[in-house]
């Protein structure tokens, strides 16, 4: 028996643990691994798949009088970032469709990546978030922060963290 979810585009198998999967994709190897895992899960459970690509607006800063003249870039940074992330998202959507996902949804958002992922999970009613992990050490995560850590600690739904493969032992 199949249960329909939403406007005729989502059909989840009865008893499937999840109906709506959100995966974050930035074009990195880690996010590609996460995308592939999310596609596998969406196909196995007949879930709706949403893909988000997030870019963070540049932090404005003011130069002092000794810094010299400020030269404006030929294209506003936000538009360049949005254009780049749109191309990244198109690659992910094509990959999902090529693998058999029916009607994947994609969205580019402009905000801090962790916030964007969490907001889209709420907006899209996701019941699983899939993220890649860069495999950084605890010290590096503490010093630099981690989008994955922030999402894991603040998500209202389960989060699957896809870790990079372990290096081969010599």
Fold and architecture overview:
The protein has 170 residues and is of the alpha/beta class. Helices cover 38% and strands 21% of the residues. It has a single domain (15-56, 77-162), classed as HUPs (Rossmann fold). Strand 3 (20-24), helix 1 and strand 4 (48-55) form a beta-alpha-beta unit. Helix 3 (113-123) runs parallel beside helix 5 (147-154). Residues 1-11 and 139-144 have low confidence and may be disordered.
Explain the layout of strands and helices.
Layout: E1 2-5, E2 10-13, E3 20-24, H1 29-45, E4 48-55, H2 77-98, E5 105-110, H3 113-123, E6 128-132, H4 138-144, H5 147-154, E7 159-162
Parallel strand pairs: 3-4, 3-6, 4-5, 6-7
Antiparallel strand pairs: 1-2
Helix pairs in contact: 3-5
CATH class equals Alpha Beta
How much of the polypeptide forms β-strand, as a percent range? 15-25%
Summed up, the domain count is 1
Strand-and-helix sequence, N→C? Answer: EEEHEHEHEHHE
Mean pLDDT: 81
Please name the CATH architecture.
3-Layer(aba) Sandwich
Task: Describe the global form.
Answer: globular
Low-pLDDT parts are 1-11, 139-144
Strand order, main sheet: write it out.
5-4-3-6-7
Q: Please give the count of helices.
A: 5
The name of the CATH superfamily reads HUPs
Estimated helix fraction: 25-40%
| Rg estimate, integer Å | 18 Å
Largest sheet: 5 strands, parallel
Question: How many strands appear in the DSSP assignment?
Answer: 7
Q: How far is the N terminus from the C terminus?
A: 49 Å
User: Which fold name fills CATH's third level, the topology?
Assistant: Rossmann fold
């Amino acid at each position: 028996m199949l249960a329909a979810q939403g406007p005729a585009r989502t059909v989840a198998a009865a008893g499937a643990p999840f109906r709506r999967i959100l995966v974050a994709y930035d074009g990195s190897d880690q996010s590609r691994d996460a995308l592939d895992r999310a596609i596998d899960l969406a196909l196995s459970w007949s879930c709706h798949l949403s893909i988000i690509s997030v870019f963070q607006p540049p932090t404005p800063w003011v130069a002092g009088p000794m810094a010299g003249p400020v030269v404006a870039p030929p294209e506003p940074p936000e538009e360049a970032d949005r254009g780049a992330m749109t191309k990244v998202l198109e690659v992910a959507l094509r990959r999902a469709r090529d693998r058999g996902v029916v009607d994947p949804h994609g969205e580019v958002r402009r905000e801090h990546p962790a916030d964007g992922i969490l907001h889209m999970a709420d907006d899209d009613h996701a019941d699983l978030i899939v993220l890649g992990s860069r495999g950084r050490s605890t010290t590096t995560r503490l010093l630099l922060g981690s989008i994955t850590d922030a999402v894991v600690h603040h998500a209202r739904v389960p989060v699957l963290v896809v870790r990079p493969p372990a290096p081969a032992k010599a």
